[in-house]
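cron nightly-structures :: item 1 of 1
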Amino acid sequence: MANFYNDNETLKHYLNHPMMEKIVELKERNFADADKYDYAPMNFADAMDSYDKVLEIVGDICANVIAENAEEVDHEGPSVKNGRVVYAAGTERNLDACRKAGLMGMSMPRRLGGLNFPITPYIMAADMVSRADAAFENIWGLQDCAETIYEFANDEQKDKYIPRVCKGETMSMDLTEPDAGSDLQSVMLKATKKEDGSYVLNGVKRFITNGDSDIHLVLARSEEGSRDGRGLSMFIYDKRNGGVNVRRIENKMGIKGSPTCELVYKDAPAELVGSNRLGLIKYVMALMNGARLGIAAQSVGISEAAYREALAYAKDRKQFGKAIIEFPAVAEILSTMKAKLDASRALLYACSRFVDMYKIYDDIAKERPLTADEKKEQKYYSKLADAFTPLAKGMTSEFCNQNTYDAIQIHGGSGFMKDYTCERLYRDARITSIYEGTTQLQVVAAIRHVTTGTYLNKIKEFEAEPVHPEDEAIKNTLVFMTQQYADAVQAVMGVDDPSFHDFMARRLVEMAGHIIMGYLLLEDVQRNESFRKSLEVYVKYGQAEVAQHASFIGNFRPEQIKDYLYDETPAEKAEA
């Protein structure tokens, strides 16, 4: 019987990463729950066995329920009736299977009904769900919004809402508005405080994923007369209370099983989360970072599906008397796809481990003061999580788009037809580099870690690690690439022109990404020889990309930037 966990040894490789022992021991508070819950682990081995068994259940449901329903859901899609979303029949079956298996609220504490999993095995589940159907991941995966309630809401709100999520209720984050896309400071949905201290919400939200969910996190303007981010607060809206209707579902290119809604709020009762005025500055930033890690997992899952579809077709399709995989031009595409997939997954799980470490320390700090060493470690991993999250979201989503493109290319004309899965994967992939912050916005978030040296410092840590003698040549290549990167950063930052820095930012971030992903694969090879081919191919690919960016930067004169920037044409000037 098919299983998306058992057929993917790389997931088990990352589940057994050496850092997991510390992550698990911290998460389990030295296994203090073992005396309170019969399903809590007694030690590290017991915890790992639990993760393994649950992920096997996820893999079974993904392969035999969600993936089987994916085409039907893509064709049927959700609909709106009387202001409410009606899921496709296959989506309802998917949700039913996940609820019965207890796969909701995986990372929430046991006392609130969750499984108390670290982020890393939860992200592995998201990886598999996305491979099965990226659209369903947008419904199932939004349970991670409960993390924001857990981090910032009061105890009464935690006790009220998180157990409902763990039992299977769905969530959404209602941020975007018709006149405020990525510019969330422009949000105008109004939160009005009543005499009894409660709030009501009025306005419109647009492009809301799973917008008719049971529990919503809503960004709204709570401060009368304000126009910027300091006037925004975060609220919880409970669908049971009424006041919000779905005006329409967007007719999208892809992820068609996931309802993307326009919502109308009319005196909708809501509860303030945390403090006034911190909605965007603090809470949404935390929410978005979690969502971006989820999109990175979604990107990797789609890449996995695309590679497998391409590989199977290339082995089966005969041309000129032999399978097309025997043609070097096709084999080259497949090897590059696999290298990008493996590099993406290596970056995803490095990021998830960093997120695990700093979040666990944040949680421990609510229970007791951290020691000096713990504070130092918390600060270290918090910085790495902040640096690696936009890098992971940006790089994995771009590679996801490239891999689905190449999957269709290998299928040829057949790939353009809806008869083949790769057509749906191609459409689903396109949104990954757009929502939860476009790739360009990920560059904006990542560039300060270029200029402050976060990436270079981490690269130097990788460089200091010993490798097998046979890997010294590849390591030397990565060392050379690092020098090219350091020289490029110095060249760009040596020009006193912010617009020039912004212009070159994408190239610098990508250079850092290629080097880091190369080192992560090199680290993987030290534990698992099966990554060797991907390491060799990816470093060659990354070497070419880094050299290209270094050449562009080295041969570019700052005054040439004007040739690239928008300028009105003579016709436009005359019209103005």
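cron nightly-structures :: done
The CA atoms of residues 292 and 393 lie 6 Å apart.
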